[in-house]
Amino acid sequence: MAAAQAQIRVGIGGWTYEPWRGTFFPDKLPQTKELEYASRQLTTIEVNGTYYRTQQPKTFAKWVEETPDDFVFAIKALRFCTNRKVLAEAGESVGKFIDSGLTELGDKLGPILWQFMPTKKFDAEDFGAFLDLLPDEKDGHRLRHALEVRHDSFRTPEFVALARKRGAAIVFADSATYPTLADITADFVYARLEDAKEKVETGYTAAELNRWAEVARTWAEGGAPEGLDYVDPAKPEKTPRDAFVYMINGAKVRAPAAAKALLERL
After folding, report:
1. 0.70 cut: is pTM over it?
2. Which of 1.20.1270.10, 3.20.20.410, 3.40.50.1980, 3.30.565.10 is the CATH number of 8-265?
């Protein structure tokens, strides 16, 4: 089911990063106030800490208390779910992650990001079995799944078809290192802009930011932006889609400025 009124959300990865103190965060802001501050400058944050360790329900509940009502978190799935030889055997890890308290976020629970190692190759049977492990809902909350694959073997229509059948979004990465797949496979779009330059104050130049703003608008309107890299020539139905855009990696110190500059254009 597509969003009746699609939203474009722009954010960064995490909120704990020392070089942001004094560049993004005000001088002398207590570290305990960093999420509260960041969530009022941006509209979403991709949480990286959930990738490395299981969080407690009370932690998710605390994040809810510290952020505005219309704020949304994307949650990176625990690495033990995806960093394995046989993905079909991840059921127990996936279950523990889903049961760790995610739904304490309520309406602030955005997409779940399943990130795979750059060495992980596409195996249609195994990957399809993994997708079957991902639940559609938990405690009455819909779960949206985004797949970040980083090996060229995924550049095949068979993978696109699998993701589209399952309703999982393939992450679009603006990356100089990893493959870019712009194929739209879900009722939302998840993008990670990873090629910021430190010598540019806003990470991306004004012209590049204007271009990404136009791309994000096209996604939200249900279109497939021109000039991106598609694997499958088939285009999805044109229907409004929420778009989640993260300034992440690249020149990380510039990520907040890049995100704020993109939000201003939107």
Report:
1. yes
2. 3.20.20.410
